[in-house]
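Example 318, ligand N-carbamoyl-L-aspartate.
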Amino acid sequence: MKNNPFSNKSFISIDQIQSPADIKYIFGVADKMKETILSGKIYEPLKGKTVAVLFYQPSTRTFTSFVAAAKRLGAYVIDINEMTSFSSAVKGESLDDTIRTIYQTTGADLIVLRHPDDTSSQIAASVQNIPVINGGSGTAEHPTQALLDLYTIYHKFKRLDNLNIMMVGDLKYGRTIKSLAKLIARVSKNSTITFVSPKELRAPKEFIKDVKDKIDITQRSSFGTEIEQADVVYMTRVQKEWFEKEGKLDQYEALKLKFIMNKHTAEKMKKDAIILHPLPRVGEILLEVDSDPRAWYFEQMRSGLYIRMALIESILLK
Ligand code: NCD
């Protein structure tokens, strides 16, 4: 397609989205993918291409949607969801060497990588001359999640501007809110972001500084106030694995369920507001909220398939 800003490029960081035009482009392709899927049509433009999906951290949604996206487009897919135990990483092989190996042994045209290190996708993209998609790196970035989150928001509100977004939970370790906040700050006008977290889980200062330059932000340490004004309440889980790594499980226990979305809180929200969550949830949205019309986290998941199809096609199709 014309003016494709993604063609033959890695997608490592949400900072690569430069303008609303980039967003309009990828959302347009995602809409086309949605239409194809819903009409049951076969659309396999990537026949003959190979996509390797390599995950070093657990995943249900991101992994299956990347695999499904590549397969539905007709690509041949090598998918390993347990790289940590199946790859030579166990024997001490470096990420560079593993990426070289995957390229040589599979002839992959594209690699999708999830990895606990912040710079992993960048490293992978520098090793071979093939594009890499970041499927989540460390605590820093989850750019495809940000695209699908914004796609969900766009479809609900039919606009990118004038939105009040509240992000709740673990803003220190959570990567989804970082990519999404940066994206909204870049492409949305007259919007606000309210970050809500216990003091111990506040977003890193550097990140806040970066976002603050572009968008109006507020930080709070109590949940429930101002929820009436929000268009989107984006809940997140407290990220146990990072506490574990730092030997701070006691702190995790103390913080894990500080902010809970229950029926009562949901009902305080505007009628046409939405609740999102990248999932998995581990208690921060009660099941009783699922039947509330504002609960949009299941629709949000489906956006992942369309956006990832759109991205894979845009990168691989010349
Ligand atoms: C998120 C992640 O991996 O960062 N999950 C996802 O990709 N949907 C959020 C999380 O694990 O809490």
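Summary: The chain is about 40% helix and 15% strand.
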